[in-house]
C-alpha cells in the first residue's frame, strides 16, 4: 500500500493512473457498444472517460 501511495504522489504516477483508467474506459466502451442492452453502461463509461481526459489535461497545464 505504501508503494501505491508513493506512486500516486508523483505527477508521473498520477498521470499513468489517469491514462490507464481512461484507456480502460475506452476499451470497455468499444467492447460493450455493439450490444444494445448496455446503453446505460456505455454512457457512463463515455462520461467517465471524458472526465478523466479533462482531469489529465488540467493536471498537465497546472504542472507546466
Number of strands: 0
Radius of gyration: 14 Å
Order of helices and strands: HHH
**Anisotropy-based shape:** elongated
Q: Kindly, what is the distance between the CA atoms of the first and last residues, rounded to a whole number of angstroms?
A: 29 Å
Average pLDDT, all residues: 81
- Number of alpha- plus pi-helical segments: 3
Helix content percent band:
over 70%
Q: Which runs of at least 5 residues are low in confidence (pLDDT < 50)? A: none
Q: Main beta sheet: strand number and arrangement?
A: none
Beta-strand level of the residues, as a percent range? Answer: under 5%
Broad structural category: mainly alpha
Protein name: Peroxisomal biogenesis factor 11 alpha
Keywords: Membrane, Peroxisome, Peroxisome biogenesis
Main location: membrane
Subcellular location: Peroxisome membrane
